[in-house]
Amino acid sequence: MLRVMLVFGTRPEAIKMAPLVKAIEREPGMEAIVCVTAQHREMLDQVLTLFDIKPKYDLNLMKAGQSLSDITAGVLKGLEDVLIADRPDLLLVHGDTTTTLSAALAAFYQQIPVGHVEAGLRSGNIYSPYPEEMNRMLASKLAAVHFAATEGNVDNLLHEGVDASVIAKTGNTVIDALKMMIRSDYVFETSLLNQIDFEHQKVMLMTAHRRENLGEPMADIFRAIREAVDTYPDTALIFPMHLNPNVRKIAKTHFDGCERIHLIEPLPYEAFANLQNRVKLILTDSGGIQEEAPALGKPVVVLRTETERPEAVDAGTVVIAGVGYEDVKREITRLITDEAHYQAMSEAVNPYGDGTACEQIVKVIRQKYLD
C-alpha cells in the first residue's frame, strides 16, 4: 500500500486537491492521507464538506492578523510532528501558497519525497504575485516529481534545470473539480442571484483581492468598472467581496449607489462555480479563475499587469488589462460592445486540459512508486 499524504491549507488549494484525494482513494494499492493546515479556516472547511473529505490531521493554524512568518513557522513545526508519527511514502503539495512551500520543506527535512501539483507556473517577477511566485519556485527545488498543467509549465521547469524524466504534463485538476460541480438546475442559496436576469443582461462577475492591487490600483480598477456599468444599461456586476476590510472599503467607495452592482458575501465553491457558468464574462486578479472560466466558455479580463498563465493569453481565452483606469475600461468595453471579439474569446480552446488531470497524476504516481 502506497501511503500518499496530501497537504493543503487554503480554499483554492482544497478545490484543486479535492478531486485528487478522491482519485487516490479509488485507486487500488494507494491510501490518501489528508493533512490540512487551515491557513484559511472557514473557506477551507466549506470545500472539505462539499467534497466529503475528512482530514486525518488538522493543524488549525489560522489566527487573526497572522503573518507569513507565523504561517511558515506553524506549518514547519506542526507538520514535523505529523511526518515523524505517520511517515508517508509521498507528500503532495499544490501550487504556490505559504502552506505549499512550508510543507515541502518539512517533508524535505524528513527525507520524504515531494510531488508538486500545478508545478511550473511562473510570472517572472518574484514580487508579483507576492509571495506566490517565490513559493512555487522554491517548491520546485524541493520536489521529486512535478505535475505540470501545460506545455508552457513544462518548458519553465526544463529551463530551470529540472530533469524531463520527473516532469509530467497532466492538465489542471481544477477542471476536474469544476466538472463535478456544474448543474444546469442549480439554485443559489443567495436569493439575490436567483433574481438576476442572466439571459438578457450582460452580467459580469468580478473577484479582486491581490495584495499588490490594494490601494490606488484597485481604486482605478473599480472606478473603470463602475463607469462601464453606468455607461451600458444592459450590464450588471456581481462582486463576492473578499473578507479583507481594505478591499471592502474601496468597493463600497466606488460601487455604492448603483442598483446593477451587487456586492455580496464570498460564495461556497459550488455556488461560485455555477455562478461562473451563468455570467457573460469574468474580471479577476485570481490565477485559478483564468483556468476555470475558459472551460465554461467565459472570456476573462485579468486585472493584473502580468500572468503566470500565458497559455490562456496565447489561446485567446484571457486578456490582460493591467490595473490602469483607461486600460481596464477599454477591455471591458470591447467585450461588452464587440460581439465578434466576445465570441472569439468564448469559443477559444481551453489550454488547461479536459478534466482528466487527477487520473493522469495517479497513473504517474503508480508508475513511479508502485509498478
Automatic annotation (TrEMBL):
Q: Which Pfam families match?
A: Epimerase_2
The top EC class is isomerase
* Keywords annotated in UniProt: Isomerase
Name the record gives this protein: UDP-N-acetylglucosamine 2-epimerase (non-hydrolyzing)
Task: Report the family membership.
Answer: Belongs to the UDP-N-acetylglucosamine 2-epimerase family.
Keyword Isomerase listed? The answer is yes
MF terms (GO), sorted A to Z: UDP-N-acetylglucosamine 2-epimerase activity
The EC number(s) given in the record are 5.1.3.14
